[in-house]
Structure formats: C-alpha cells, structure tokens
Design goal:
Blueprint lengths: L19 E7 L3 E9 L1 E2 L8 E7 L5 E5 L10 E6 L6 E3 L2 E3 L5 E4 L7 H10 L2 E8 L2 E8 L3 H9 L2 H32 L9 E5 L6 E6 L5 E6 L4 E9 L2 E7 L5 E6 L1 H7 L3 H8 L1 H4 L8 H12 L1
Antiparallel strand pairs: 1-2, 2-4, 3-11, 4-5, 5-9, 6-7, 6-10, 8-9, 10-11, 12-15, 13-14, 15-16, 16-17
Length: 303
C-alpha cells in the first residue's frame, strides 16, 4: 500500500460539511479514488483539516487525516468519538507519509475497521483528537453524504470484507459448538453408568519424572511423579488415553487421562505393556472420543 504520495489535489472549503469524491490516476500509483470531508480545527493555522478514505487500484482502502500540521512527531495517537455517544475509540497503530503532512490509520484498539466505517456512514458528526509529543489538537467533521462517498471510494471492499467476516464468525461459532459438545462428552466419560473398576496398580520406578496428562477439567497439565506415588489404571479408555487415578505422597488423589507412553516413562513393569496390548478385552469406552477431536480441544486451548 503506497503511503508516500503527496496530496496534490486541493480540497475546496464548504460552509456545510458535505463529503465529496474524486478520482484520478498517475504513472506511479495507478488509478485511485477518494472520499473526503473538510472539517474544523480549534487552533490556527490548522482550522480546515480533511478526513477521508483513499483507494489505489481497488486494494485495501486507506483511512487518512491531513491538513493537521506536522505529523512526524513521536507517539502519535488518534482518539475518535461520534455524536449521540460518549464512547471514545483510539489507536496508536498509525503511519505517516514521507512528507510528514498526512497520517494513516491501520486499526483501532477497541473497534474493528468495519464497525468504524459503519459508524461513519450512520452518524452525523465525527470528533477527532490528534495527540503526539508535539501537542494535542481537536477536530470536528460532518458526515453528511459519507455513506455514498465511502462506497464510491472503497468499491465493494468493505461489503466483501463484511461477508467474509460473517463467514469466518459462522465457522468459529460452529467450531465452538463442536468443541463444547466434545468437552461435555469428555466430562461424561468420567461419570458413565458402567461401574468403574481398577485394572492394575503400580508405583513409579523412576523418581521426579514429568508426564503430560489431561485432568478432569479437560486441561492438559505437566504432572511430576515421585517414587512413593501410587497409580491405579481403570477400565476406561478415551481414544488413545487411559483413565488413571494417582495417590500422591502428600495424600492428594487426582484422576487423569494419560497416553500409555506416559506410563511407560514411569515404570518398567511388563504388566503395563500387556494391559495396553490387550485393551480391547479390558477397557470399555464410556464415550467414543476420536484422536482428531482431542487434537481440536488441545489446539483450541493453545489459541
């Protein structure tokens, strides 16, 4: 996105703040369209700031603020508010052009760009405070005619973005519902109607070994075992994980699901291998949870 251009076109001053549009092209930037409005400033000589949107070759539109003085100071911050609301939006994620006479907004701290564009289209006034290491200034812009002007400059970009956002949100909702269902089934696997029976008990033969496990709340944890801990294997098998309970040396008892490899790390007891090799005869699945489903839970938790 080219942010080094010089604003060569002049903005006329209108007594009524009406959004205007312009289009042009040059050898370096190609075709571009702009939608802008001239506002009011509270300090001389920057009493006629301009705010708007510029779009080069149908790419992602740029939101800009110009005629506000020198923009090359440090710690640039923009604050935004609209009429009929006390809510203030802000951003420090901005760029300036090479001439240090324009500032470009990349994103907002507490608002999406789509929602900001919607506010520009539906409100009647926009208030901006521009702060930097050089000082602070306030500006006011009318929004009459903004909706049609923005659509002219941006084309279908924001409409397409809104549709894509809706699609992604729908997919996210479906995934969240699926994850919730899997989590409920995993919880149910600890409390099924089949009597819980232990298959085998053993103690670690290696001291201070750490093993990854799922606790009852479906959270993966690193558990450190001592030689005195007692591990009980039960008749539960969740995909590739065994249900176990652990009586720790400190008299605390907890239950986990653990990959058999984790048990092999704790002991050289040959019975463990026999139990795993004969699991189809020994373990009853309370819930059929696939490896892919468990992987989805783990991946989502990392996010």
């Amino acid at each position: 996105m080219n942010k080094s251009f010089i604003f060569l076109f002049l903005f006329p001053v209108f007594l009524i703040a009406q959004w205007k549009t312009t289009s042009d092209s040059n050898k370096f930037d190609g075709d571009y369209k702009s939608a802008f409005v001239v506002g009011e400033g509270d300090k001389l000589p920057y009493t006629k700031p301009s705010f708007g949107i510029k779009n080069f070759d149908s790419k992602e539109p740029m939101i800009f603020l110009i005629n506000v003085g020198y923009t090359g100071c440090l710690n640039n911050i923009l604050m935004f508010s609209f009429n009929d609301s006390d809510e203030v939006f802000r951003t420090s994620n901005v760029d300036v052009n090479l001439n240090n006479d324009a500032i470009f907004i990349n994103e907002f701290n507490n608002l999406s760009v789509l929602n900001f564009i919607e506010l520009l289209k539906t409100r009647s006034k926009l208030f901006i405070r521009y702060k930097s290491s050089c000082g602070s200034e306030d500006f006011e812009f009318g929004l009459s005619g903004s909706s049609k002007a923005i659509d002219f400059a941006a084309g279908t970009y924001f409409k397409d973005l809104a549709l894509e956002t809706q699609r992604l949100n729908k997919e996210k909702l479906i995934e969240e519902m699926r994850i919730n269902q899997i989590q409920e089934r995993m919880k149910a696997s600890f409390n099924c109607d089949v009597p819980l029976k232990y298959i085998y008990k053993f103690k670690p033969s290696i001291d201070l070994m750490t093993v990854n496990m799922f606790d009852k709340n479906l959270i993966q944890r690193k558990i450190k075992f001592n030689l005195g801990d007692e591990i009980t294997i039960y008749n539960r098998w969740l995909d590739k994980r065994l249900l176990i309970s652990v009586n720790f040396n400190n008299s605390i008892n907890k239950i986990f699901y653990v990959n058999p490899v984790g048990l092999w790390l704790l002991t050289e007891d040959p019975h463990i291998k026999w139990i795993i090799d004969n699991k189809t005869n020994l373990f009853w699945r309370c819930e059929q949870i696939s490896f892919e489903e468990i992987h989805l839970i783990e991946t989502n938790r990392i996010k």
